[in-house]
Amino acid sequence: MSNTNQTSRILLNLVLIGIIYLGTNNPLMAQGEFNKINAYASVGAVPGLEALMNIEVLVNDGGYFTWYGRGGLGYGGILLNQGGPGVLAAMTMLSGRKNHHIEVNGGAFLGYDNNYGRTFILPSLDFGYRFQKPSGGFLFKIKTGILGFGIGLGYAF
User: Could you tell me the pTM of the whole model?
Assistant: First the structure.
């Protein structure tokens, strides 16, 4: 593995550890009514392809906008180009205080393409709708973004 690939993986791991740390140990985090952890599976396609297991950790429940750090494991890529297993590091913003939310996600997917034997990074930027009760329970989301259209199902704790 080249030094660039190794450095990229180390940086992405540090970002994921930082997100989890902030979500669980941040003394400045507002004590609002949103749940602390969301777990969900998501799939999306055209022009990209993604299938991820995601964990979101509450970073800030700041009133109308709620922020989560997001990490994911799974598959990502661009159809008929590069793709493979990897990790996602991102931030999620939800608007609203009730059950229906506008959602914005931004981050990056770091994957390894077995066909070409190289590491790749894909930007991730999605806009969508999410049904999620502030107190927790069933979670449903639909999105559109750089990697295409997608859906997610999970649970908020």
Answer: 0.79
Domain boundaries, the chain: 3-156
In the block, which residue shows the tokens 């890529």? Answer: 77
Q: What's the rounded Cα separation, in Å, for the pair 117 and 100?
A: 42
Half-sphere exposure of 156 (CA within 13 A, CB side): 20
Encoding tokens for residue 72? 């994911």
Dist. CA 75–CA 29, nearest whole Å: 32
pLDDT in tens, 64-100: 899 999 999 999 999 888 899 999 999 999 998 899 9
Which tens digits make up the pLDDT trace of 8-38?
666 566 666 665 555 555 444 444 578 899 9
The Cα 90–Cα 49 span in angstroms is 17
Q: Which residues pair with 124 in a beta bridge?
A: 107
List the helix and strand counts (H, then E) for the chain.
Answer: 1, 7
Instruction: Please report, in angstroms and rounded to a whole number, the separation of the first and last CA atoms in the chain.
Output: 38
Q: Provide the sign of the torsion angle of the four alpha carbons 149, 39, 56, 137, taken in this order.
A: positive
Inter-residue contact 33 to 49 (CB < 8 Å): no
Look at the domain 3-156 and name its fold: Porin (2.40.160)
